[in-house]
Amino acid sequence: MEKNLNSVEYHPDLPRPAVLCTIVRIHGSAPQQVGAKMWVCAERFVGTIGGGAMEHQAMALAREMLKSPKPEPQVKEFKLNEEAGLVCGGKAEVFFEPLPSRKSIHLFGGGHVGRAAAAVFAQMPFDLHVIDARAEWAVQDAFPPEAQVHCAAPVEYVRSREWTADDAACVFTHSHDVDFPIAAELAGRPLGYLGVIGSKNKAREFQDRIRREKGEALAKAWQEHVRCPIGLPLPSKNPKVIAVAVAAQLLQEWGLGK
Is the peptide bond before 17 cis (omega within 30 degrees of 0)? Predict the structure, then answer.
């Protein structure tokens, strides 16, 4: 599959972790030119650095690098001779650039605020997920192409994943009754950022309900980690303004950190 890989930062549709293989120097003849790129993951690859034995060897090296917890960039020279199964007769130097997994943003709710938020986060260096159980709102064409839209029960989606500090979740569904079980499931998980749309009164009600139904430990986790109301305090109910306020807070507190 051909794909322009010149801009690594804005290829959210390409899976990570990965190794980007780039021809940086050629001596003599080679099946590709300087700048040719190949994106290698554990189970697939995109692009080409010329095919044949050299590409096969480069792919094998890239996948060995992916097995390392902290792979280091490196340059390797490939001889393009008969011994290597090639007849070009030249040499090619390939730069192997490890690309770690990206942080992930999970937007619960595909309504007006969810769609506005997805548009704001589009083309940022994150994996972007939108989750909504309503088929009429979980429509891929309504979101930027890099957003992964899941028509799924939100709580089941939460329980199906391993959550880490590299995950952020924003909860703004069409109903408080839908928001609550999602927020209760996420409050005790080690997310880097968790925000729930609503007022300060809603935050108090949710915390009291979590205390009654889930216990004091989870209520304390809610108080310490959940941003409710979500976003910077901008005086507007316009979905686009809310989305910008959410994005600004999320980026400031989590997204642009290490």
Answer: yes
